[in-house]
Amino acid sequence: PAPALPPGGGARREPTAPQAPFTPPGTAQPPPEEPGPGPRSAGPGPDGQDPPAGEDLVPAPVTELAAIRRDDHLLVVWVWPAGSRTALVRWRLEDGGTHGRPGSGEATCSRRAYDHDGGFELDAGYGAVSLTVEALVPGQAGATFAGPARLRVAARPPVVSYEPSLRRTLRGRVARLAFRADASCHLPALIVVHGTSRYRPSNPGEGRLVHEIPPQRVDPGAPTVVEFPFTPSRGDNWLVCFPARPARPVTEGGPAGATGDTSESDAIVLRPSARHRL
Hints:
This protein is mainly beta. The protein has two domains: 53-153, Immunoglobulins (Immunoglobulin-like); 159-272. It is built from one helix and 19 strands. Strand 10 (159-169) and strand 11 form a beta hairpin. The longest helix has 7 residues, at 111-117. It is elongated, with a radius of gyration of 32 Å. Residues 1-57, 250-278 are annotated as: Disordered.
């Protein structure tokens, strides 16, 4: 006898995945659920073993939080708490974000990447930045902590470079100083010192005062030129600019920030564009 056919005329139904319920067009969709601030799964511990049952990853502050400025990047460093393999870094750019950079953000930094790069590198631009860093360590859910470590990094001061030169005129020789800035800034009062030794003067006492430059604004683009009569001596000649008030600008080799009675917005880095003699 012929085998009995299954119901439905011999067609066999294959099991299918459950389908989402039909939603009429135009109906508002509920937003997806976001992960709450609860603890995270710990995963393997630092020794490669699974953490004890019942433990989760809970936030803990790092210590010795600091940042090293490298032009428009920051290298953020800290001391990890014991047992931590991941840290959460959050930042906010006080200038609101420029050149395509978002004004704020956050990122996860693994201990392996941190050790490989020597820290956490952040493309922050030249403005001031506020940072928070918290590590994730194995612990019991619901544990409290003191909050993330916080740090504010001051804006990099504008760099003002100057190039001295000599030119001849019908009235004699003239010294020319061309100042160039990478950002609009206020150039404080300067003094120009003439040195005649084999080495470039490192302070005003190693030369003779030949000119004073009043405060003025310097903008990027075309240089700001200052000229004054000058008669060079035989042998070596140096023209070096120094701040009239030593606490005002930040000279080359000094800290990249405001010093003394200078506000952060008035600080500059002053340096010569060439180190050769006239």
